[in-house]
Amino acid sequence: MAELGKLESTVMDVLWHADEPVLVRDVLEALTTDRALAYTTVLTVLDNLHRKGWAVREKDGKAYRYRPAGTREQMTARALRQVIETSTHPDLVLLHFARSASDRELHILKQVLHERESGG
Fold this sequence. Notes:
This protein is mostly helical. It folds into 2 domains: 63 residues, Winged helix-like DNA-binding domain superfamily/Winged helix DNA-binding domain (Arc Repressor Mutant, subunit A), CATH 1.10.10; 33 residues. It is 62% helix and 10% strand. Strands 1-2 form a two-stranded antiparallel ribbon. It holds the Pfam family Penicillinase_R. GO terms for molecular function: DNA binding. Belongs to the BlaI transcriptional regulatory family.
């Protein structure tokens, strides 16, 4: 995830694998990192993910429960959209991407373009 740091990406993995919204302590227990993390560190990361629009939170007593704002694929597409929109030359970014796309990726793009052209 280009928009996320390493720890943020790891926390998002926990959220994407959770079956339901989770508390900070649930995330802390599920994290597998090479160093011990403080509760407040995980809380700060989750707050940052919420602020960035990657996580949604809902009040549960005095705490919050967190869940992803979308699937991994939806959020990756959103990050790609932001890269394109913030470029000074989005047309060139798309051109370079299309030239570097695999045959499978080009096939998918052609399918989507066909669907859009036919109103589907």
